Amino acid sequence: MSLLKEILLDQYHCLVDALDPIDDSVNAVSIPGFEWARLGVMRDGVVLLLPPDADGFAPEHDLENIWIKPRGRYNVQSSTVSRVETVAVIATKSRDPQVVETFLDLVGMLFQTGVSADPESVRKFIENLVALFRVLTQHGHKSTQGLWGELLLIDQAANVELAVSAWHASTNDRYDFTLGHERIEVKTATGPRIHTFAHAQLASLSGLRVSIASFVLNPSSDGCTCADMVSRILLKLPGEGLRRGFVELVVRTVGVDWRHQSRFRFDKDHALQNLRFFDVDAVPKIHAPIPLNVRNVSYESDLQVVADMERSSLHPRDQLHLAMCGSDYK
After folding, report:
1. Are 51 and 88 in contact (CB under 8 A)?
2. Please, which of 107, 122, 177, 204 could form a disulfide with 166 given CB 3.0 to 4.6 Å?
3. Which H or E run includes 119?
4. Nearest-angstrom CA–CA distance, 195 and 130
5. Is the pTM of this model over 0.85?
6. Residue pLDDT, tens place only, 95-145
7. 95: three-class secondary structure by DSSP
8. Displacement of CA 286 from its chain's centroid (Å)
C-alpha cells in the first residue's frame, strides 16, 4: 500500500472512531505533507476540505458517488476547536467501504501528481477528480490483472518516462506499448505460461520489432495492488501534467473495475523473477490464412517451451525494448 493511501486510511478510521453521531460538524485533520488540505468525516460520508474557490464561479458537481461544492460555509471541528469556515468540499455520498477506499485511492494518487494550495492547482485537482469518477461509470478495455502486469513492466523499466510515453497511445492500439518501429504486448497468467492472443497480434509485420512480455503471477494477500504501483511510478515521472495524464489513463484502462482493484494483489518479486520476453515470430500460432469473412479470431498459445528473446538480439535503435528488458535480463 502506498504511504499516502495508508496515512489517509489511518486518518479516516481515527476520525470515524471519534465521530459524534448526533453532531452535524465536519470532523477534520490536516493531511501530512499537504497541510492546506484536510480529511474529514460526516455522518454520511468522507470529506476533503480544500481552499475555497476565490471568485465563486466554479461549478458544483453531483455525481454517482460524490458531490462537490467549490465554496460553502461549514462547521468544522479540528481537535477541540469548532468554528464555521468557508471551504471547498468534496464528499462521498456514503461511507460504504468500497466507495471510501476508491475515494482515498484517487485522492491519494492525484495528490502525488503535484497538487498545491495554489487556486489554479486546486481547480485542476477538482476537475481531475471529477473526470476520474466519471470514468468509473464506464467499461475499460483491460482486466485488472492485465493492468497490473503492464504497470509492473513500466515500474521496472530503465526509463520509466519513455515507457509511460509509449503506453496505450490509443485505446484501440493492437499492442500495449508502441514506439517508432517497436511494439510490446504484455500478457499475464496465474498458472502455466499460456496466454490468449488475438490472431492479429501474432502477425509478422515487416520493419517492426514485436515482442511479448510474459508474466507468471502469484496471488498474495500482502502483495502489491495496481494503486501501489501507480504510487511508485508517479515518484519517477517528471512534470505534473505527465503524472496527471498517467493517473487518468490508468483508471480509464479498467474503468468501473477500478473499484475492485485492491482485491488483486500479486507478489511483485515473483512476477519479476518469472518475466520472459518472446519474439512474436517464436509464439505458436495459426499459419494458415484466416478467411476474409472470419474476424476477431483469438486463441491460446503455450509458451512454456518457447525460447526466450535474448537481449543480445536487440539493436541500439530498439530503445523501448532496451528500456523494458532492464539490465538484468539475459
Report:
1. yes
2. 177
3. helix 119-135
4. 36
5. yes
6. 999 999 999 999 999 999 999 999 999 999 999 999 999 999 999 888 999
7. coil
8. 34
